[in-house]
């Protein structure tokens, strides 16, 4: 697959998609980034940090 | 030079004050408290790492200029590296902000640490916006006219004209990054002085 074909999967020269809900108007790209930030935030709280148990045992 | 003269020197007094405020073992500690071993504490240093890539790629773009980053393949790569490191910078900074907000990270005399973080966030937004304006293409012209309308509405349009591409480029590559980096350095030093904010104390009710 050439670079041009790969770029065609994500067309960057077309108009963006927007979501309208009452007075809220947000691009799909921005919404995806916000959702990813929320997922990352929750994952950071939920998933254990590597070596945490070992460090606690050594105390 | 006598001992008393050395004692009175401003360099001696300034050094002693700095070492008292931030001794080397506090500036570069060997260990961190146990509560720091959580993913939520990772995003501050992620922001810092992304900022380093932003500055390094920005320096490369400044050396070669717009013709290079718009026409050559290596220029496109460095341009993209600059954009995506900024994306990671803001992504990590927002998660860092959320984490610190819910920890109430201004506790324990850390108000100045919190405020330097807030101001750095605002300066970073201004730096990113002037970056959009100075990318020297049709998109930047559209963004700058939209921004001009917004700034005119605030009444500051006469003093800050975002349609002046040369001025915005200078703000983007010199003034705003300088302020952002200095504030970041101050923020990190304050974190070292006061230490990383501990979690809330667990409230245990004992029923008699």
The figure for the number of domains of chain B is: 1
Q: Determine the CATH topology of chain B.
A: Cytochrome Bc1 Complex, Chain C
Question: Any low-confidence stretches of chain B, pLDDT <50, length ≥5?
Answer: none
The CATH class label of chain B is Mainly Alpha
Helix count, DSSP H or I runs of 4 or more residues of chain A: 3
Helical percent range of chain A? 55-70%
Compile the SSE list and pairings.
The complex is a heterodimer of chains A (59) and B (208).
Chain A: H1 3-9, E1 18-21, E2 24-27, H2 28-46, H3 52-58
Antiparallel strand pairs in A: 1-2
Chain B: H1 3-8, H2 10-21, H3 24-27, H4 43-64, H5 66-71, H6 73-102, H7 111-133, H8 138-154, H9 165-194
Helix pairs in contact in B: 4-6, 4-9, 6-7, 7-9
Q: Describe it for me?
A:
- The complex is a heterodimer of chains A (59) and B (208).
- Chain A is an alpha+beta fold.
- Chain A has one domain.
- Chain A has three helices and two strands.
- In chain A, strands 1-2 form a two-stranded antiparallel ribbon.
- In chain A, strand 1 and strand 2 form a beta hairpin.
- The longest helix of chain A has 19 residues.
- Chain A is elongated and about 55 Å long.
- The termini of chain A are far apart.
- Chain B has a single domain, classed as Cytochrome Bc1 Complex, Chain C (Up-down Bundle).
- Chain B has 208 residues and is mainly alpha-helical.
- Chain B is globular and about 65 Å long.
- Chain B has nine helices and no strands.
- Chains A and B meet through helix 2 and helix 3 of A and helix 6 of B.
């Amino acid at each position: 697959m050439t670079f041009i074909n790969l770029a065609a999967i994500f067309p960057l020269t077309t108009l963006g998609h927007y979501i309208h809900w009452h007075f809220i108007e947000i691009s799909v790209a921005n919404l995806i980034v916000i959702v990813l930030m929320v997922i990352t935030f929750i994952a950071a709280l939920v998933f254990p940090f590597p070596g945490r148990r070992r460090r606690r045992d050594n105390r | 030079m006598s001992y008393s003269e050395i004692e009175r020197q401003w360099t001696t007094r300034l050094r002693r004050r700095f070492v008292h405020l931030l001794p080397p073992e506090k500036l570069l500690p060997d260990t961190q408290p146990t509560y720091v071993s959580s993913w939520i504490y990772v995003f501050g240093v992620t922001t810092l790492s992304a900022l380093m890539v932003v500055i390094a790629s920005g320096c490369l773009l400044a050396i070669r200029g717009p013709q290079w980053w718009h026409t050559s393949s290596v220029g496109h790569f460095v341009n993209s590296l600059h954009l995506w490191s900024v994306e990671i910078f803001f992504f990590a900074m927002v998660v860092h902000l959320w984490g610190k907000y819910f920890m109430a990270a201004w506790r324990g005399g850390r108000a100045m640490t919190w405020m330097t973080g807030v101001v750095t966030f605002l300066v970073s937004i201004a730096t990113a916006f002037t970056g959009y304006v100075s990318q020297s293409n049709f998109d930047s012209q559209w963004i700058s006219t939209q921004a001009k309308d917004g700034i005119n509405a605030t009444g500051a349009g006469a003093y800050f004209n975002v349609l002046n591409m040369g001025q915005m480029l200078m703000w983007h590559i010199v003034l705003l990054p300088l302020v952002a980096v200095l504030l970041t350095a101050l923020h990190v030093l304050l974190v070292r002085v006061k230490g990383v904010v501990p979690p809330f104390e667990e409230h245990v009710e004992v029923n008699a």
